[in-house]
């Protein structure tokens, strides 16, 4: 009964969040996080295993939708210049983070945490901004590579802290790269198979689906890929992301499918996840521990600085605009979902203290709040300025 009441309260928060977002002009995701934080603080709902499980499903579905934005056939058309710039950008972020961690004598955990990248907030921004904006589209495309690297880093981090430098760690890495190799092989075989027999894919999702076969197949693929990676003891987010990629690459002819899945995810599961993330923030601990803020702002400052430096080196000539370059860097400075997941992993293995854990969680939330507001302000200011000039 208590679980039903909890879901009822969260459902109410999900419904009122868009109205509050419109009134306050605060981005929707930020509104959901803040609602979760205050509602939990004032005991409107409590945590339970079923809520945590449902929130995790929401997180995985968000990663599934991230994968859905990746059409490998289109991705191949970007060419070597795109890969060169993206690789330089990511290399600068990881390299600078490595130097910073050694200079400050921090835990090795920070090498994985500071450069972490996630498409979660970018996906949310795509719901608020036009997709054809150059900086946002490039942020999505580069973010795809960044998120894949982040997933691999999370798997390595999990294996390192679980098994140490033992044979089990190397076995986990072998399974990871073998699995990715098999997936690449399956993509190659599927390319040939669907080229010779293009109607085969219509057996899974007919062009004129009248019985929701598209949704049924999508959910089956989503859960099956998660189940496979779980059996291999890999990160479940990898399975969700790959499921979205498969769907986008081979079933893109089903034009309305992406919109259906987005409506399904952003209608309940994903807002529930963001509300749950807000509820993990202990407001009492934060208000009673002022030193936590200095640590939090240090994390935010270095994460933003890493991306701004890398963006200006790798993409200043591409954008030919300081504003677009900053907007691009800021959009990658909000790895909310993965930063929370990484912090939870660090806490689980005692790689970071409780204070550091809360600093990372608070940084993840404040980055999402502050930077999404900054992005909206910079973008709106630019748009209004151009409109006034045109008038």
Automatic annotation (TrEMBL):
User: Where in this chain does the record put each Cation/H+ exchanger transmembrane domain?
Assistant: 12-377
One Gene Ontology molecular-function label: antiporter activity
Q: Quick check: keyword rRNA-binding in the entry?
A: no
What highest taxon heads this organism's lineage?
Bacteria
Q: Where in the cell is it found?
A: Membrane
Q: Which Gene3D superfamilies match?
A: 1.20.1530.20
Q: What is its main location?
A: membrane
Indicate the secretion signal residues. none
Q: How does it sit in the membrane?
A: Multi-pass membrane protein
Per UniProt, which keywords does this protein have? Antiport, Ion transport, Membrane, Transmembrane, Transmembrane helix, Transport
Keyword check for Acyltransferase: no
Q: Name one GO cellular component term.
A: membrane
Name the chain's protein.
Sodium:proton antiporter
